[in-house]
Design a protein that fits this description.
Layout: H1 12-27, E1 30-35, E2 38-43, H2 50-57, H3 61-68, H4 71-93, H5 99-110, H6 131-144
Antiparallel strand pairs: 1-2
Length: 147
């Protein structure tokens, strides 16, 4: 059951501000590495995730999805989800992080598919073909389908 309007933890503005803070935190993340006896900061931007953002914002994923169904929140939630997808795509293209993990994530969470599915709808009137022509057509279709 949905909560009454106004009982949500974050306002749309607070949700947007949390998203902006989260992105800045991810983009400015650094790792430290010892080199020549010195500890050197290495910029290592993090890939955004919906789950990590929800933890940062102090809300559950279900709450974020509920927000997405509310008119005042829907644009912000769409922007968050599109931003997460775009950042993952950028990481994949630029070789950041685990390529295999990013590909798995894209397939599992975004329906990305490596196959091209081609659907052919034949709307031609086949009634003008003779029985021999129809048989030849069926044989050709069988060869194309590998039967």
């Amino acid at each position: 059951m949905a909560r009454p309007f106004g009982t949500y933890k974050l306002t749309p503005e607070q949700l947007g501000a949390a998203w902006d803070e989260y992105k800045e935190r991810c983009e400015s993340f650094v790792k430290y590495q010892a080199t020549a006896g010195k500890v050197v900061p290495i910029p290592s931007p993090l890939v955004y995730t919906v789950e990590d953002f929800c933890i940062y914002a102090g809300i559950s994923r279900d709450t974020l999805n509920e927000y997405g169904n509310l008119p005042d929140y829907s644009d912000t939630v769409k922007s968050i989800k599109e931003g997460v997808f775009a950042r993952k795509h950028r990481a994949l293209v630029n070789g950041e992080g685990s390529t295999t993990g990013l590909i798995f994530d894209m397939k599992a969470n975004y329906g990305i598919n490596e196959k091209n599915i081609i659907e052919v709808n034949n709307t031609d009137d086949l009634s003008r073909l003779s029985d021999d022509e129809l048989l030849m057509l069926a044989e050709l279709q069988g060869k194309v389908r590998g039967k």
